[in-house]
Specification:
Layout (H helix, E strand, L loop, with lengths): L3 H9 L15 H6 L3 H4 L3 H36 L3 H12 L9 H13 L1
Helix pairs in contact: 5-6
């Protein structure tokens, strides 16, 4: 026991407490090969709701990350104004590998400024 109070509560309890650690989510392996059958037969509505929630969380995280990239682009664009500096900014932001995060329109506009500059 972690403390005297916990020990007294444990001794005075009418029945032992059940631990939640024994419950684990099923894995892909369990779904494919049918092991752990009691856990595999989950409610499809629950799993669909879980998947929908995960998709919403992922979309929210992507939007937040994109906004961060756009904020950084704006700050750097205001700071670096020469033609060569703008070219380097365009190169820098074109190296972002995720298409969801890459500021394509902003880089295209920056390249247009360089050409007309």
């Amino acid at each position: 026991y972690a403390s005297v109070a916990a020990a007294k509560a444990g001794i005075a309890a009418a029945a032992p407490a059940k631990s939640a650690r024994g419950k684990k989510d099923f894995t892909l392996w369990d779904r494919i090969f049918g092991t752990n059958n009691s856990r595999v037969q989950t409610n499809t509505a629950t799993s669909k709701a879980y998947n929908k929630q995960r998709a919403l969380e992922q979309e929210s995280a992507t939007k937040l990350a994109r906004q961060g990239v756009l904020n950084l682009f704006s700050l750097l664009k205001a700071r670096y104004t020469s033609v060569e500096e703008k070219r380097q900014l365009a190169i820098l932001f074109s190296m972002i590998s995720s298409p969801d995060l890459q500021p394509v329109r902003e880089v295209r506009g920056l390249l247009g400024e360089i050409d007309n500059g």
